[in-house]
Structure formats: C-alpha cells, structure tokens
Amino acid sequence: MVLTLIEHGDGEIAETSLEMLTLARDLADQVDEDVSAAMFGGEELAAGLGEYGVDTAYVCGGDLSESYAPEARADALGILMDDLDSAAVIGGGTDTANEVLAHLSAKRDLAMAANTLEVDTDGETCEITRQRWGGSLLEHATMEGETKVFSAPDHELPIEPVGDGEAAVETITPDVDEASFEVAIDRVEEADIEGVPLPEARIVIGGGRGVGGEEDFEQLEELADQFDGATVGATRIAVDEGWVSHDAQIGQTGQKIAPDLYIAAGLSGAVQHWVGAKGSENVLAINTDPEAAIMYKGDYAIVGDLHEVVPELTDAIEAATD
Ligand SMILES: Cc1cc2nc3c(=O)[nH]c(=O)nc-3n(C[C@H](O)[C@H](O)[C@H](O)COP(=O)(O)OP(=O)(O)OC[C@H]3O[C@@H](n4cnc5c(N)ncnc54)[C@H](O)[C@@H]3O)c2cc1C
C-alpha cells in the first residue's frame, strides 16, 4: 500500500496534495499496490479522491481534525501505516505536511526525502530525484528501509485525473496518546495584507537593498498602482531591515511568485531570492550595476538608479494609460 497524506482547506483538496498523487500513483504502479489516503476532517471531499486514483480514503475526525497538532497527526498516520502495511507514506509540499511526515519519520526512525520529484523502485531500494536548495539543484539519491517517507515539492508536478470512480471512505479513530496533542494550533490570525497576494499577482514589483528605506518603497507602490493585479515584493535584506513585512519576502524562505511580469529593482538576484522568482514569465531588471546577476536573468534590463527610473516608468505608464 502507498499511503498518502491529503490536506484540504476552504472546502477543497489542496492542489499540492493532488500534485503529490501523481507521484504516489506512479510509485504504486511500480510496486503493484493501491493508493490510499489519510485525511484529517474533510469527509465530504474524500470520495472525490477516486478521480485521482485513490482506492480508499481514511478520514480521522474528532480532536485530530479540529486542531492542527502535528505530533498527534503523525501518530495517527503511523497507526494507519502499520495497519495497511504501507511500503511508502507520501505528503504534499506544504510546511504542515512536511512537519507531520518529519515527526512520523523521527519517531519511527524511517528514511524521509522531502521535495521528491521522481521515484524508481525495484520494490526494495528507491532511486530518487529531489529538489535541493529551493529547487536550484537536483539531487539523485538512493533510499533504503522498509517504509519510505516522501514529500513532493509544491507546484512542480502535474495534477492528472485518472478516472471518474469514487474512493471508498472509512471514518477511523486512531488511538493516539493524549500527550501528543500538547503542541497544537489554538487560533489562526489572518495577516493584514493589502492588495493582491504575491503568489496570485499578475505583475510584481520587487525591491531590495538598493531601494534604501521604508519610505522609498512608496515609489514601488506607486508603480504597482498603475496596474491591475500588481503588488510589491521584496528581498530578505529589505525585510530584515524592517522596510517591508515578512509577507512580502520572495525566495527560498519567502513566497514563490509566477507573474506575467516581474520588475526587479535594486536587488542583486541572489540564488535564494531567484528560486522564488524564477517562475516569472518576463523579467525587467533595474540596477546600477550592469554585472548584477539579475541583469542576466531578465529579459529586459535598465542600467540606472531606481530612484530615477521607477518614477519615470510610473509617469510614462500613467501618461500612456490616461
Ligand atoms: C538560508 C538562506 C535563505 C535565504 N532566503 C532568502 C529569501 O527567501 N529571499 C531573499 O531575497 N534572500 C534570501 N536570502 C538572502 C540572499 O542570499 C541575499 O543576501 C539577498 O537576496 C540579497 O538581497 P538584495 O538583492 O536586496 O541585496 P544585495 O545583494 O545587496 O543587492 C542590492 C542590489 O541593489 C543594487 N543597487 C543599489 N543601489 C541601487 C539603486 N539606487 N538603483 C538600482 N540598483 C541599486 C546593487 O547594485 C545590488 O545589485 C537567504 C540567504 C540564506 C543564507
């Protein structure tokens, strides 16, 4: 059995879980096993997983679904893993799936590979390809062990419906130790984000150290105001300086963007930043240094001081769209 950890929110299965099922099905086909799913709540969505190749969905309710307690969920997953004699346990590319799987692996002393794109197995050993360093390099590795644990990277695998059958749904109540609920989320506060969220923005204006200060970010905001669906992002330096909030950070330890246009102003294009921006369709770099890495990544580059270039760009767009 290949056991998958399926996440959901706002009445939908998480996209990253559906992407992960593509990997899980491939692995299950190689070892001639079925794919089953573990869910915490979301019973109404469980049968629909049949469309993505899930044979049986096991839904945990009660305390396990009401609040997110990573260790308790890992224990529940471990109980199911044992009951189903699972060859592999796989989750999607979210922080929460990785956290639950890491607890499971640590407690059971299992091998875990995060961000796995491909698995080739003879039923014993797995040859895997996985992303490292935020996707800037691919690692080929060999995994051994009775049960292997994987997570798939976010938004890298295709979602592939494979049929229109329904998954069988079973409600279960794994006997999880009370102590494992000790760490649990007791409330969620929505971030106070203005405008379009970075991952959904059609145009992103990114600023880095070269912007120079909190007030200077206003210039980037004014440029963003010229477009529908535009928002301002930043490098980690700008966040660490306190010029913008952490929600605006793009990169390995920030958010990933995939806009039609990324205007990157006063930032060097360090690899940790670029892994979050490389999904951009077009890039316009503005930098005083013609040798900055971002100038080579972009489709268009303007060598110049952003404090002159950005207001001119804003005025030109305003004049053209009036
Ligand atoms: C584990 C780890 C994780 C990290 N995660 C992230 C991450 O998620 N996101 C991230 O961004 N970084 C991340 N970093 C930091 C990253 O390595 C870089 O230090 C950072 O991205 C650089 O920010 P910057 O481009 O703003 O600054 P700099 O590298 O200092 O570049 C500033 C640029 O501005 C240009 N400039 C200066 N003045 C002007 C001007 N007036 N007009 C035009 N251009 C000007 C300069 O020529 C230069 O190219 C991470 C680092 C580590 C070690």
Q: How would you portray this structure in words?
A:
With 322 residues, the chain is of the alpha/beta class. It folds into two domains: 2-181, 3-Layer(aba) Sandwich (Rossmann fold); 198-321, TPP-binding domain (Rossmann fold), CATH 3.40.50. Helices cover 29% and strands 26% of the residues. The protein has helices at 15-31, 43-46, 63-66, 70-83, 95-108, 217-224, 236-240, 271-277, 293-297, 306-321, and strands at 2-6, 8-9, 12-13, 35-40, 54-60, 88-91, 111-113, 116-121, 126-132, 137-143, 148-151, 168-172, 203-207, 230-234, 261-265, 282-287, 300-303. Helix 4 (70-83) packs across helix 5 and helix 6 (217-224) packs parallel to helix 10. Bound molecules: flavin-adenine dinucleotide.
